[in-house]
Amino acid sequence: MNTLLHIDSSATVMGSVSRQLTAGFAADWLKENPRDAIVYRDLNLNPAPIVTSDLLEAIYAPAGSELTGKKRAALEVSDALVEEFLAADAYVFGVPMYNFTIPGSFKTYIDQVVRMGRTVARGAKGLEGLVKGKKMLIVSTRAGDYAKGGPREGWDFHEPYLRRVFGWMGIEDITYLPVINSQVHGDQNQRMVEVKTALRATADRWRSEAVSSGGFGLGREPGLAA
Ligand SMILES: Cc1cc2nc3c(=O)[nH]c(=O)nc-3n(C[C@H](O)[C@H](O)[C@H](O)COP(=O)(O)O)c2cc1C
């Protein structure tokens, strides 16, 4: 059994396009891979706390030292998020663009799961990621068009940031799907057809790569080596 960690961060509950797309991906995945597990986290309903001195002092406290209640509580929250992140084999994240970058709810989540010694560590070349062999799909809804050559080229701080931070954590297989949610830029219905085709292609690729490499997805089909 493998685990897909599904996270939504849109502050819109009814009518959110990213929520609809990530939910569709997760539901299709489970239908086709019924032995897998989906873990769901809604950062709007249940935001990850911001990093405070309580957490930092707890993380860097000398081994064996007694932590105050607030520090221990902050560490327990971060530990749980890190463990959930590391336990997943693949990720589907719904991350709308807010003010040219990611929602604050997703930033506090990232700040909690980037943890020295757990997800990144000091290696020969400086800080290196420890999160290896995972697959990630990021569904990035936005109202604007930030295409190369367009008037807003260079305004998108969402894609480069997420590719950098998760890539730095060690995740090499990142599918980033920008989804323009607007009637202004082109044909919205046609665009949604293309987005769904891209989601389908991602699921198919994950599945076939897992089968050929014996990695993610191992053993879900009769006849495959366990
Ligand atoms: C607070 C806020 C900030 C936004 N900032 C941007 C932005 O900088 N660029 C953009 O293209 N769209 C922006 N939008 C539009 C959303 O990205 C767009 O409506 C998207 O569909 C939201 O995702 P959702 O449908 O999953 O909620 C913003 C929306 C909100 C609510």
Description of the molecule:
- It is a single chain.
- The chain is an alpha/beta fold and 226 residues long.
- The protein has a single domain (3-213), classed as Flavodoxin domain (Rossmann fold, 3-Layer(aba) Sandwich).
- Helices cover 39% and strands 18% of the residues.
- It has 6 helices and 7 strands; from the N terminus they run E-H-E-H-H-E-H-E-E-E-H-E-H.
- Residues 218-226 have low confidence and may be disordered.
- Flavin mononucleotide (FMN) binds next to helix 1 and strand 6.
Concise synopsis of the structure shown:
The protein has 226 residues and is an alpha/beta fold. The protein has helices at residues 17-32, 53-59, 69-87, 104-113, 158-168, 188-213, and strands at 3-8, 37-42, 90-94, 120-123, 126-129, 135-142, 173-180. It has a five-stranded parallel β-sheet, sandwiched between helices. A two-stranded antiparallel sheet has the order 4-5.
Summary tags:
single chain, 226 residues, alpha/beta, five-stranded parallel sheet, two-stranded antiparallel sheet, 6 helices, 39% helix, 18% strand, disordered C terminus, binds flavin mononucleotide
**What would the principal axes of the Cα set say about the shape?**
globular
Indicate the CATH topology: Rossmann fold
By CATH reckoning, the class would read Alpha Beta
Q: How far apart are the first and last residues' alpha carbons, in Å? A: 10 Å
Mean pLDDT: 93
Q: Major beta sheet, specifics?
A: 5 strands, parallel
Bound molecules: flavin mononucleotide
Name of the CATH architecture: 3-Layer(aba) Sandwich
